[in-house]
Amino acid sequence: MASKLRYPLPWRIKPCSPTNRSLLFDRSHLHLLLLLLLASLVLSSASQHAHEFCSIGDDSGCGSSSTKLLIKGGTVVNAHHKEVADVYVEDGIIASIGPNIVQVGDEVNIIDATGKYVMPGGIDPHTHLEMDFMETATIDDFFTGQAAALAGGTTMHIDFVIPINGDLSAGFESYVSKAKKSVMDYGFHMAITKWDEAVSKDMEVMVKEHGINSFKFFMAYKGALMINDELLLHGLERCKSLGALAMVHAENGDAVAEGQKRMIDLGITGPEGHALSRPPILEAEATARAIRLAGFVNTPLYVVHVMSIDAMEEIAKAKKSGQRVIGEPVVSGLVLDDSWLWHPDFTTAAKYVMSPPIRKAGHGEVLKAALSAGILQLVGTDHCTFNSTQKALGFDDFRKIPNGVNGIEERMHLIWDTMVETGLISVTDYVRITSTECARIFNIYPQKGAILEGSDADLIILNPNASFRVTSASHHSRSDTNVYEGRTGKGKVEVTISRGRVVWEDDTLKVTPGLGRYIKMKPFSYLFDGIEKADAAYLASLSAPVQRSRASS
Ligand code: URP
Ligand code: ZN
Ligand code: ZN
């Protein structure tokens, strides 16, 4: 019988049975094993949890051995339709959906979903796992971050590759290596941090060979990731020619630097200085500027982490004029407010530092309304975690607090509780904003983001009558803090299925490092349809060049 080797955190490795030993020394898994052992050593000091994970390459039954799965009697929800039906899965793919599917053979794993919702697993469009940033690195890597995601019902995420000294290929290779311990499917966006011929050429390589179809431009983080308008224009043009989606972190980085100096001069050095130094007006200005430059180039634009009413209104205005602009709020901006930054305890206040800042009470409600109205289209997390020791790097100066909050594990629950439970959106809308829209925008629909025959079997079963509670003691992130600490709500992801494997059930994770697959994303999504016609119409409208002769009449 195949063995079940498990690693109970805090990462003590149980003695291996003889069968396990042969598994451990299987050459094909040796490199992955070394990686996990290394990760285990690093984690042993940080983690206090007692979750169980399967061993590398354990294909035996960890995360459900059955390649056949029948989910009976649930309400199957897609972005535009829901019905009570059974879902039959074989070899990681949805094989059929319909009433009363009959079990064939014995080896089918049957799950009763009566009274529950069966939905596409969440897709998080915005994460930063193991990212070098602000003199440190995010504490969740492709193992712990993804384990957390699966425990919260997210089955795919798209992470941002950061070039190394501006070099895209070097950045890509480093992320390929970081992602080797993946336990679920993932894709990459790529940041552009400098401009020259090599970068322009490498963008094409990324799109055509490596399946990256989106590039992010940081308009803030002066002296680090920030780019200027000239670079943004070059980048927008290049994105357009490649059919890649341009993304922006929209804050006026020069003005932010001035705002920071202003706070320091006033003696405001704590976390509240972070919010005060970069008000919504700076987010709105950069959002408007990026939108206008994308309009000038006539290419679609994706604005990441829309945190304020002010920025959202710029997006609404552009959409009303027919421009293709996607706005992505993140869960922290929807459910939190900035009052935490004034908390007298530094550790508590610092954990809420992210950029653009979490705004005053009221912004989140309006952003949620914009989501329900379709002005904003999908929800991310910007999962970018630092523990309290890392946050303390900025104890004397808020400019040094690493920017970022958690959310990859909490997003699905918090959106359900604050938007579906409250009646703001329907269950089908929930699927649309947490999964389907992301798959469409990044051109992986209907492989992902749908419960259709032939789609990947990335599924969740959510019990609307159960409840959830968030605590740093029970979460799966490696961080010792959680910005949603103590939150409770209705609706619980009871089962997560990743490509046909049951990886989360009975509050237990069963994941296997190395089984996560890189999902290549093709360029020219639906957002590019008709762009060339608009360009032709523009050229035709110019009435130029005017033919003139030198001789005067
Ligand atoms: O504070 C944030 N958002 N950290 C992650 C980097 C970014 O700007 O997305
Ligand atoms: Zn950003
Ligand atoms: Zn981010």
Outline the structure in words.
This is dihydropyrimidinase. The modification N6-carboxylysine is found at residue 216. Residues 1-44 form the signal peptide. Residues 117-503 form the Amidohydrolase-related domain. Its EC number is 3.5.2.2. The protein is of the alpha/beta class. The protein has a domain at 122-451 and 465-489 and 514-532: TIM Barrel (Alpha-Beta Barrel). 33% of the residues lie in helices and 20% in strands. The protein is built from 17 helices and 20 strands. It has helices spanning 18-24, 30-46, 144-151, 168-178, 197-210, 229-242, 253-265, 272-277, 280-297, 309-320, 331-335, 346-350, 363-372, 388-391, 411-420, 427-441, 531-541, and strands at residues 6-8, 52-54, 68-78, 81-90, 93-98, 108-112, 117-120, 122-127, 132-133, 136-137, 154-161, 185-191, 214-218, 245-249, 301-303, 325-327, 459-469, 488-498, 501-505, 508-509. Strands 3, 4, 5, 6, 7, 17, 18, 19 and 20 form a 9-stranded mixed β-sheet that branches. Strands 8-11-12-13-14-15-16 form a 7-stranded parallel β-sheet. Helix 9 runs parallel beside helix 10. The chain binds N-(aminocarbonyl)-beta-alanine and zinc ion (2 copies). The site of N-(aminocarbonyl)-beta-alanine (URP) has 9 residues, from loops.
